[in-house]
Specification:
Radius of gyration: 18 Å
CATH architecture of the largest domain: 3-Layer(aba) Sandwich
Number of helices: 10
Oligomer: single chain
Bound molecules: guanosine-5'-triphosphate, magnesium ion
Strand content: 15-25%
Number of strands: 6
Number of domains: 2
C-alpha cells in the first residue's frame, strides 16, 4: 500500500497538533498559547484504503524566512513536496489566517484548506461560505472542529482526492503590480533554467526579488544534497536581484 505524505501548515494556535494527535494517536504538545510545536513531528494514519504520513509543522504567520520556524515550514513544503499540504486555519480569524493559505497556494495546488474551530465560529455567529472560498482558491475547503471531532471524515475524503490526484489544481497565480510582475517575468526563466521544473519557479523568483537570501541558501543546499550542483547560480540569480518593497 502506498503512503501519502500530508504536511500540516498554519498559523500558530490553529489546532494543527490537536488534529495531528486525533489522526495519529500521538501526543504532540497542544495548548492555548502560540508556538508550541518547535520541530516537525511525524505520525501515521489510515483513511479508507490509503496510508498517510502526517507531518506536523511549526505554526507560522508566513513563509517569508522571518524565523527558523518559517524557514523550516517553507523548506518542507518546497523541497519535500508533500502529496498534500493541509493548511489549518482558525475559523474565528480567517482574514489573518488566509494570508498563509495564499502563500502555500502560490507554491502548490496540492492543498486542502481546513477551517478549524468551527464550533467557536458558530458560537460567535460567524457564518463561513465554504463553497465561495473553495471556488476563489481553487482547492477543497472543509470546516472542522478538531477538538470536538466534527468534520474529520469529510476532511480526509478531500485529502484523499488531492493525494490521489483525482482533484488537481495549479499553484494559485496572484497578480502583483507592474513593477513586480516585470521582475518576475525577467527572473522566472532564469530560475527555471537554473533549477529546472522541480520547484515553483514563479514563487522562487518572487522571493528572490524580495531579497530572500535564506531561500537561496536553502535552494543551494538542497540541490547540492541531491547531487545537482548549481553551476552559476550566484551569477544567474544574484544578478539583478532588487528589493521591490
Ligand atoms: N474550541 C476549539 N478549540 C480547539 C479546536 N482545536 C484545537 N483547539 C484548541 O486550540 C488550542 C491550540 O491547539 P494546538 O493543537 O496546540 O494548536 P497548534 O496549531 O498545534 O499550535 P502551534 O503548535 O503553536 O502552532 C488548544 O487549546 C486546543 O485545545 C477546536 O476545534 N475547537
Ligand atoms: Mg502544534
Amino acid at each position: 500500500m502506498s503512503q501519502y505524505t500530508v504536511a500540516f501548515a498554519g498559523n500558530p494556535n490553529t489546532g494543527k497538533s490537536t488534529l495531528f494527535n486525533l489522526l495519529t494517536g500521538m501526543r504532540q504538545h497542544t495548548g492555548n498559547w502560540a508556538g508550541k510545536t518547535v520541530i516537525s513531528a511525524e505520525g501515521e494514519f489510515t483513511h479508507k484504503d490509503h496510508q498517510y504520513l502526517a507531518v506536523d509543522l511549526p505554526g507560522t504567520y508566513s513563509l517569508y524566512s522571518n524565523s527558523a520556524d518559517e524557514e523550516a515550514a517553507r523548506d518542507y513544503i518546497i523541497f519535500e513536496q508533500p502529496d498534500v499540504t493541509l493548511v489549518v486555519l482558525d475559523a474565528t480569524s480567517l482574514e489573518r489566517n488566509l494570508n498563509l493559505a495564499l502563500q502555500v497556494l502560490e507554491i502548490t495546488g496540492r492543498t486542502v484548506i481546513c477551517i478549524n474551530l468551527i464550533d467557536e465560529a458558530r458560537r460567535l455567529g460567524i457564518d463561513i461560505n465554504l463553497k465561495k472560498i473553495s471556488k476563489r482558491l481553487g482547492v477543497p475547503v472543509v470546516a472542522i472542529s478538531a477538538r470536538n471531532k466534527i468534520g474529520i471524515e469529510a476532511l480526509l475524503d478531500q485529502v484523499e482526492l488531492v493525494a490521489t490526484s483525482v482533484v488537481t489544481a495549479p499553484p494559485l497565480r496572484i497578480t502583483y503590480n507592474d513593477e513586480i510582475e516585470r521582475g518576475i517575468a525577467e527572473l522566472t526563466p532564469m530560475v527555471e533554467q537554473t533549477i529546472g521544473s522541480m520547484y515553483p519557479a514563479r514563487w522562487i523568483a518572487l522571493r528572490l526579488l524580495d531579497g530572500d537570501d535564506s531561500l537561496l541558501t536553502s535552494l543551494k543546499a538542497n540541490m547540492n544534497s541531491k547531487g545537482k550542483a548549481l553551476p552559476g547560480t550566484k551569477e544567474v540569480l544574484g544578478h539583478g536581484v532588487t528589493a521591490c518593497h
